[in-house]
Design brief:
Largest sheet: none
Distance between the termini: 77 Å
Shape: flat
Radius of gyration: 22 Å
Oligomer: single chain
Order of helices and strands: HHHHHHHHHHH
Number of helices: 11
Helix content: over 70%
Strand content: under 5%
Length: 228
């Protein structure tokens, strides 16, 4: 505390502020730790610790979202089993809504991390994580946008990052009833990154009845066009 007060304009103050937040995390005081990470962001916006602090802050909100989500599950299950149990329905719906709000906060922080620090080692992972968290909040359009920021950045590793981002983008398109877009992405993974585990997952999706049917329809269309 003394360093942040007495040497507020030095690099040591920013480091001390970051350490304060980390210590509160270690003391199992996540809310106070989150406040200290926020202080770092507005007091020391040029700090070299800011990207890591943003990742930790995003993780904090993600954990809060998971907690609310877990509380919602049994309440909504109880309400489904007994439609007259309005208290369970209202409480479960409220918990689910809170979980979605916290997920969105987390995703937005990871998005800002990637945008603000595009060359940081956490940038690609942050974009991927933002997309996955948006999916948890059932914000699939936002998820596609976040995931494509990883897919389209060729500087990111293809096998471990871009292929995974492609896979989850495809899953988002399926949730949005964009079967053709999903199909194209699954195919692209198998062509661009055949050695990745995500290519194996993509092949599994391509072998499902709905996409096999789409593949047959596309092949028939290609043959018909070739005859014209």
């Amino acid at each position: 505390m003394t360093i942040t007060g007495s040497y507020g304009d030095t690099e040591y103050a920013a480091k001390a502020q970051f350490k304060i937040a980390v210590i509160y995390e270690a003391l199992q005081e996540p809310e106070i730790a989150a406040q200290e990470y926020v202080k770092l962001a507005y007091k020391y916006p040029a700090s070299g610790h800011l990207a890591t602090a943003m990742a930790r802050l995003g993780t904090h909100f993600q954990r809060k979202a998971v907690t609310y989500e877990r509380k919602a599950v049994p309440l909504l299950a109880r309400a489904a089993a007994n439609p007259d149990d309005k208290d369970a329905e209202h409480q479960g719906t409220a918990m689910k809504k809170l979980s979605h709000l916290e997920y969105v906060k987390a995703a937005q922080i990871f998005e800002r991390l990637q945008t603000r620090f595009p060359n940081h080692e956490l940038a690609g992972k942050a974009g991927l994580r933002a997309g996955q968290i948006y999916m948890r909040a059932e914000r699939f359009t936002d998820a596609v946008k976040a995931l494509l920021s990883v897919v389209n950045e060729e500087a990111y590793d293809g096998v471990t990052l871009r292929s995974e981002a492609m896979y989850w983008t495809a899953r988002c398109h399926e949730s949005l009833n964009g079967q053709l877009q999903a199909y194209a992405l699954y195919k692209r993974i198998t062509y661009d990154f055949p050695e990745s585990k995500w290519a194996a997952y993509a092949r599994a999706q391509l072998s499902t009845e709905r996409l096999l049917r789409l593949d047959r329809d596309l092949e028939i269309k290609r043959l018909q066009e070739g005859q014209e």
